[in-house]
Design a protein that fits this description.
Number of helices: 4
Oligomer: single chain
Order of helices and strands: EEHHHHEEEEE
Number of domains: 1
Number of strands: 7
Strand order of the largest sheet: 1-4-3-5-2
Distance between the termini: 26 Å
Length: 289
């Protein structure tokens, strides 16, 4: 269990505002992912035009779909790393600026040397790798399901809700585009959460207040949309307003880490620990020691 303590109400402490995942980055990346996916969907749909023919045509279609899968997996893999790295750096630029501004205002000092430390770069790389891996799975997941649908149609096995093969493919296309939207939202949140944690801890901030979105969608809210937590997304309703340590995360992670978590960490700073320091580049700034 995480460590929970009572906030020192003394004037020495300041509470930082929560750094929410940048919506502008999420929307832009969601649109870019959709632009990648649509040509793939159209290509597969074209290849499926003969899927309801005889056995020979069905086999030709299966081989054509396999060819499409190889082509699109190769294409998505070729762009995944650069796509994800730019995505993470876009989040980092906004997160860095917001943290620098919030800490500076809370402490009443300039924060010029706010955290271009090696572990920030490492976090960017790790977040990029995770996002790139998810991007690479999109063609395999979608076209693999399409292949199964073709086999199912050939065997005259019914689809859910009485859908035809064409309707099933349309349904799978919608599922794939929705999955891309979830990836855009969830990965942007995770990138923001990771960078917020690293920048705050590098500043010397050890604790934060857990803040939820405080609406019916918060997991654990009595009578809400998701009244019970689980192993992947715990009960965040009961954490709202409590204090946690960065070095002692809850089982499902800090705010922003669980799937589709919208919570944020309000860092707690202590002016009594503020010290003036000089970086390697000779720039003088401040750090909580």
């Amino acid at each position: 269990m995480p460590s929970v303590i009572v906030l020192n109400a003394g004037k020495r402490t300041r509470r930082l505002p929560g750094i929410r995942a940048p919506k502008s980055v999420e929307v832009r990346r969601r649109a870019m992912l959709d632009a990648l996916i649509v040509p793939m969907l159209e290509d597969v749909a074209t290849r499926l035009l003969s899927a309801e023919g005889n056995e020979s045509q069905i086999m030709d279609t299966v081989f054509s779909i396999r060819e499409a899968q190889a082509i699109w997996e190769s294409y998505f893999s070729s762009i995944a790393d650069s796509f994800a790295y730019q995505w993470t750096t876009d989040v980092d630029l906004i997160t860095k600026e917001k943290i620098a501004d919030s800490v500076g205002k809370a402490l009443g000092v300039d924060m010029p040397m706010i955290l271009d430390a090696p572990d920030v770069a490492e976090s960017i790389r790790l977040s990029s790798v995770e996002a790139a891996d998810l991007i690479r799975t999109i063609p395999k997941d979608y076209i693999g399901r399409v292949s199964q649908a073709v086999y199912q149609s050939f065997r005259q096995q019914p689809f859910p809700e009485g859908r035809t093969l064409a309707q099933e493919i349309q349904f799978l296309s919608g599922v794939t585009r929705e999955r891309a939207r979830v990836i855009a939202r969830d990965q942007t949140s995770k990138m923001n959460a990771s960078l917020t944690e690293i920048r705050q801890t590098n500043l010397g901030i050890e604790e934060y207040i857990w803040r939820t979105a405080e609406d019916r969608r918060v997991v654990g809210t009595p009578g809400g949309k998701y009244p019970e937590g689980n192993s992947k997304h715990g009960n965040h309703y009961v954490r709202n307003g409590k204090i946690f340590r960065w070095d002692s995360p809850p089982p499902d992670g800090h705010p922003g880490w669980p799937i589709q978590c919208r919570c944020v960490a309000l860092g707690i700073v202590d002016r009594s620990k503020l010290r003036e320091v000089t970086g390697r580049d000779g720039v003088t700034g401040w750090r909580l020691m």
